[in-house]
Amino acid sequence: MERYLSIREAAEKWSVSERRINQYCSEGRIPGAEKIGKAWLIPANADKPGDPRKQKKQSVSHKSPNAPALFPGFMPLMNTPFEPGHCIETIEKMKPGPKKDIAMAEYHYFSGQAEKAMQETEPYLISTDGGIRLSACWIFAYSCLTMGRIDHARRALQEIQNTLANSGKTDPPVHAIEAFVAFAAAVLLHLPLPEKMPPMETFLPLLPPGVRAFALYVLAHYLYLKEEYGQSAGIVEATLSMGAYDYPISAIYLHLVAVMDYMSLKQPDRAQIHLLTAWKIARPDDLIEGFGEHHGLLGAMLEATIKPNWPEDFKRIIDITYRFSSGWRRVHNPITGHDVADDLTTTEFAIAMLAARSWTTQEIAKHLNISANTVKGHISEAMRKLHVETRKDLKKYMLQ
């Protein structure tokens, strides 16, 4: 997968106007440039048109086909390179058995089919293979959240923490998997880290490449929650440049946390490029779960970009959002004691999130291409439902 630039970034790179870049794209003078919705995605390694002195850079393969398979049973789909549009084909080529079954459960989960994923992973929750068992627990827990089976989800999450707490004598590679799964479950549900959580540097290098890329997404998400947006975005950009594009599931999630970072930094152009790139990777295989999971953190970027151009897909994403967030809050709130807004519509939540991040009414209106009065109406309704009087008070109810 290639990296992409926005119109603005290409204009800065080539020292020309944004209007000229639009002209290049419209005339087909930039090989690989693709229009998605109303925006252009421009390959980062594309040459400036009309400059014969530059030679097109050869893409570098980051795949390591000869790397040892330390964890053949752990999240096999996440850890398998495949071209977008060939996800099912990749799974079908796997040898029948637990690994293939888990890979299919991964596909069903990441494509928004939580019930199937839950059914497929339940038989493996007591597997004697540590990688298979932890994969099953992780997928099962998140699937149960979406399906409203909260007690089942809590038990699976507790099994993950128990495994980590009791794994002092396991081999370092196995311990790395256990630590990663526990870290990801805690961060993505915004829960306290396990007491015996080892430092990331002790287990990150031991993870296989596709899972390592996802672990770096989790780290970037963790930094985002600490409001270290620039550092988080830096990790995303570095991880993508070092080969994460080969692993579509991890790449999608990395791009989504970059959207979160750049919206927090009030850089919507960069955020849009990351969202559209994630969408380009995800759509051929219908891997839309991550968009629904992150809706509240994406700063209304789904409303601004996906809804106008892919309205039916947007409806499906919002359905995932409602189902996942309902379960998420039922696990998050009792454990942390924090209130998270659950009475708002997705549109009210997205706009209130931007208002809580100090976006002005005019900035929000421009971003969503709606009137300032419409923005004010959504914010007033959100404040009424939450019983607050100022925009500053919204922050305590919003996901960070």
UniProtKB/TrEMBL annotation:
Matches recorded under Pfam families: GerE (PF00196), HTH_17 (PF12728)
Cross-referenced SUPFAM superfamilies: C-terminal effector domain of the bipartite response regulators
Highest taxon, organism lineage: Bacteria
Keyword Cell inner membrane: no
InterPro entries in the record: HTH_17, Sig_transdc_resp-reg_C-effctor, Tscrpt_reg_LuxR_C, WH-like_DNA-bd_sf
One Gene Ontology biological process: regulation of DNA-templated transcription
CDD domains per UniProt: LuxR_C_like
Residue span(s) of domain HTH luxR-type: 337-400
GO molecular function: DNA binding
Keywords per UniProt: DNA-binding, Transcription, Transcription regulation
Region (Disordered): 41-68
Entry keyword Ribosomal protein: no
Gene3D superfamilies per the UniProt record, alphabetical: Winged helix-like DNA-binding domain superfamily/Winged helix DNA-binding domain
Name of this protein: Helix-turn-helix domain-containing protein
Organism the protein comes from: Merdimmobilis hominis
Top-level taxonomy: Bacteria, Bacillati, Bacillota, Clostridia, Eubacteriales
